[in-house]
Structure formats: structure tokens, C-alpha cells
Write a structure and sequence with these properties.
It is a single chain. This protein has 476 residues and is α+β, with helices and mostly antiparallel strands. It has three domains: 138 residues, Beta-Lactamase, CATH 3.30.450; 85 residues, Helix Hairpins, CATH 1.10.287; 171 residues, Histidine kinase-like ATPase, C-terminal domain (Heat Shock Protein 90), CATH 3.30.565.10. It is built from eight helices and 13 strands. It has a six-stranded mixed beta sheet. It starts with a helix and ends with a strand.
Length: 476
């Protein structure tokens, strides 16, 4: 196991190809040699029967054979009379007993393989016994020939084995070349990836012209590099925007402190504190939002309990009673979702703070249930609307970017950190829903849709009991 881990993919595939090819070629060679051996043996038996048949005809006619019994070298024959005496034989068996003891009882021909005996050290021979019918009784003509070895002929065995070896080497070499050519783009990709760093994140690995797995791999790598490049760009932009937003209140505080130091008689601790406190609050807000975004980006664990949106919104509406805007909350009871109450409360607070900064006089909050094809169990819908200047359609996604800035009409109040809506959307996506800006007759309309919790879903305890039946219209 440890040895195979140290071998390259090319080496492993080449080794596997060679081993499998050698096995298959060996099996093929054995099959071919076996087939040739069977064919040659059958042909030899036919020749032996034909030679014996010629002698049988002569014995049945005259009782003896004129001329040599066998016409082929290495073939032996014997003529045995009805008394079991050898009356005629080939020169190699003269003076020797009969080559076999079996006779073709009830049949004209019988064959078997005989080893040793009159053949001595010559090995085994195929012996065929044929009956010759004579008036005094049946005679037997024995015809034999050496058994064909498994390799048939040495030159034939050499040819087949050599062909199998050459075929194994050729296929192994071809497999190595194919693997080498297939993995060549991988080497190019690895070289390019080694050269890509933070100073050149826009570089991409070359895509091979073939439509294979390597092509799909390069596509996936390039898409990953593109996402990393975009993430790095956003990170750099985020760091730049955060530095800018942090520098502004710090610069203002530094200016106030320097003025107080240059003219201490013209200021007091109370006046200086009142001047610095708004900048400190802004710094605190930005740092808090940055910490929240960091936790969301890191995938910090969150609760997953049943939350009644109507009750959650009712509590938030009561917490915003100090706002100077008219706050209308229209809540449908029984709209329950699964989520983290603290995060959902933060989402609603950010939406209300945003609406409070841009509304002229009225903020409207709605909670209701809707059918949504993206959520089989229905959607829990939360709407936050204001009667401010609204958001142009081409800028509705821009407001969810971190530290995004629109025109002066929607930024007339500098109290926001520029991160509230980005945090709200990320909380919505973490909870399995989505937050977007939708059409409205007047002002901006932020709509949150979350999957509604089923009745049998017991992931946690409910955040509270549902309000009474009906659509309460709570005005602050």
C-alpha cells in the first residue's frame, strides 16, 4: 500500500495497463495454443485411422500387406491375428509384443493413449485399434503415432509467445503515451497555479481544447479563481471603505481635542464630551457592525427555534416608540419561522433604523403569510415601508453592499454606518430566506421572505405565544 502511494498516477496506470495486457495476452496465447493443439491432434487421429484402414483392407483381402506397413516416419503399426500373435509390424516393433491389449469389441475401431511398454522411453503414443474381418476370426490392426505436445511445434510456440510479448509491450507503451498526453494539461495547470498569487489574482489557468474531465477541471478551477478574485476585491474594497468610515469620526474627534488643547479657556469638559460623544457613538456603531459581519462571514452558530414574527415585530415596534415618525404595524398572527430570535431582531432593527432615517412622516411594518413556489410550506413575509424619496430600480441591489452610498437624498442623515442593510440581507440568507427591495407606490419597500415553519417542526421552542386572532393595527 505504501509503495503504491509513492508511484505517480502515470506510473500506476502504466503498470496496471501492462499487467492487465500481459494477463490477457497470456490467456489469448494459451487459448490459441490449445485450439491449435486440439486441431492438430484431431488431424493426426484422422491420418492414423486412414493409414490403419488401408492396412485393414489389405489384411481382409490377402491376409498380409505387401510393402511397408507405415508410409510416414515415426508411425508404427502391427497386425495381430485372431490368436493374438503379431504377424506383421513396422521395423521399430519387430520382435516385440503387441503395442496394446485392448481390442475393438463390438465395434470396428477403438483408440486410446498408451505410455511406455513397447514404446520404451519414447513417451506416450496415440494407438488406434481397427478390426479386420477374416474367415477364421477377426484380426486387429494397431496403428500408433507420438502424442502431439502442448506446444505442437517449437517454432509455433515461439511465434505465439513472441507475438504476445510484443503486443503487451506495444499496448503498455501506447497506454503510457495516452496517459502522458492526457496529464500534460495537469502539469500546465499546476505550473500556472503555482505562479498565481495575491499580486496577480486575475490570472486564470489555460483551458485545454478537448472536452474531457481535464477541461471540466479547468473550468471549475477558473470559476473558483474568479470567486476568490471577486472576494479579494470585495475584501480590499471593504477594508478601504471601513478605513474611510473610521477615519472620519476619528479625524473629527482629533480636531476637537486639538482645538480644546490650544484654547482650554474657551471650552469645558462637558462641552468637549458633548462634542465627542456623537463621533464615539458612530465609532461604536461601525465597530459593532463590523464584528457582526465578521461573525456572519465566519458562519458562527445560531439558534434554530420557532419564532413568531408577529410577536417579534410587536416588541420591536414598542422599542421604537421614541421615533419622531408615525409607526404603523399590521401583524398577522401565527406566522412562525425557524431562526435565531436575536439575529431576526437585529434584521428588523436595521430595517426600521434605515426607514426612520429616510421616511418623511410614516413607517409601515407588515407581517403576513403568502404562498411561494420557492418555499413548499409557504413563506413568512415581513415588509418595512417608508414614505421617503425611495430607491431607483437600478440601485436596489447597491444598497445591500457594504458601505454603499447613494445620492444625497437617501444619505441626508449621517447616523448610519453603511452596514445595516448588508447585515440584514446576510441574516436573511443565513436563515434560508432572502431580502430585497420591491416596487412601492411611494418610498422604499423592503420585503423579507422566510420559509414558514411547519406545525410538526420541533427544532426548538417558540419565542412566544401568538397574538390574538385578527389583524391588529398597532400605531406608535
Amino acid at each position: 500500500m505504501h509503495v503504491s502511494r509513492d508511484i505517480s498516477i502515470k506510473g500506476r496506470i502504466t503498470l496496471f495497463t501492462g499487467a492487465v495486457t500481459a494477463l490477457l495476452c497470456t490467456l489469448l496465447a494459451v487459448v490459441v495454443m490449445t485450439a491449435i493443439h486440439h486441431y492438430a491432434t484431431d488431424a493426426l487421429r484422422s491420418e492414423i485411422r486412414a493409414a490403419g484402414g488401408r492396412v485393414v483392407v489389405a489384411v481382409e483381402g490377402r491376409g498380409w500387406v505387401a510393402g511397408p506397413l507405415a508410409r510416414q516416419p515415426g508411425r508404427n503399426m502391427q497386425v495381430v491375428d485372431n490368436q493374438g500373435r503379431v504377424v506383421q509390424s513396422t521395423p521399430a516393433l519387430r520382435g516385440k509384443p503387441r503395442m496394446a491389449t485392448f481390442i475393438p469389441h463390438g465395434q470396428n475401431i477403438r483408440e486410446d493413449v498408451v505410455c511406455g511398454g513397447v514404446f520404451g522411453q519414447r513417451g506416450c503414443e496415440i494407438v488406434i485399434a481397427q478390426s479386420a474381418h477374416r474367415p477364421e476370426g477377426d484380426w486387429v490392426v494397431y496403428t500408433s503415432s507420438p502424442v502431439i505436445p502442448p506446444w505442437v511445434e517449437p517454432w509455433l510456440a515461439t511465434l505465439i509467445v513472441g507475438t504476445a510479448a510484443v503486443l503487451t509491450a506495444a499496448i503498455t507503451y501506447l497506454g503510457n503515451r495516452i496517459v502522458t498526453a492526457s496529464l500534460r494539461p495537469v502539469h500546465t495547470i499546476r505550473t500556472e497555479l503555482d505562479e498565481i498569487n495575491a499580486s496577480c489574482p486575475a490570472r486564470r489557468v489555460p483551458t485545454p481544447p478537448t472536452r474531457d474531465e481535464i477541461h471540466d477541471l479547468t473550468d471549475s478551477i477558473n470559476r473558483t479563481l474568479a470567486r476568490l478574485d471577486a472576494a479579494m476585491t470585495r475584501q480590499r474594497q471593504f477594508a478601504s471603505d471601513a478605513s474611510h468610515d473610521l477615519r472620519s469620526p476619528l479625524a473629527a474627534m482629533r480636531t476637537e481635542v486639538e482645538d480644546a488643547l490650544r484654547a482650554p479657556e474657551e471650552t469645558s469638559v462637558t462641552r468637549l464630551g458633548d462634542t465627542l460623544l456623537p463621533s464615539l457613538k458612530r465609532l461604536e456603531s461601525i465597530v459593532s457592525d463590523l464584528l457582526t459581519l465578521t461573525k456572519l462571514d465566519a458562519g458562527a452558530p445560531a439558534l434554530n427555534v420557532r419564532v413568531d414574527l408577529a410577536e417579534l415585530v410587536d416588541e420591536e415596534c414598542r422599542m421604537h416608540h421614541q421615533t419622531t415618525k408615525r409607526l404603523i404595524c399590521r401583524l398577522e398572527p401565527g406566522v412562525v419561522v425557524l431562526g435565531d430570535p436575536m439575529r431576526l431582531g437585529r434584521l428588523l432593527t436595521n430595517l426600521l433604523d434605515n426607514a426612520d432615517r429616510h421616511a418623511q412622516s410614516t413607517i409601515t411594518v407588515k407581517v403576513q403569510h403568502e404562498e411561494d413556489e420557492r418555499f413548499p410550506g409557504g413563506a413568512a413575509v415581513l415588509e418595512v415601508m417608508d414614505d421617503g424619496p425611495g430607491i431607483n430600480a437600478d440601485k436596489r441591489e447597491l444598497v445591500f453592499q457594504r458601505f454603499a452610498r447613494l445620492d444625497a437624498a437617501r444619505n441626508k442623515d449621517a447616523g448610519g454606518s453603511g452596514l445595516g442593510l448588508a447585515i440584514a440581507r446576510q441574516i436573511a440568507e443565513t436563515a434560508g430566506g432572502y431580502l430585497q427591495v420591491e416596487d412601492s407606490d411611494r418610498g422604499a419597500r423592503f420585503v423579507l421572505r422566510l420559509p414558514r415553519a411547519r406545525r410538526d417542526d420541533s427544532s426548538g421552542s417558540a419565542s412566544g405565544s401568538a397574538p390574538a386572532a385578527g389583524w391588529p393595527d398597532v400605531t406608535q
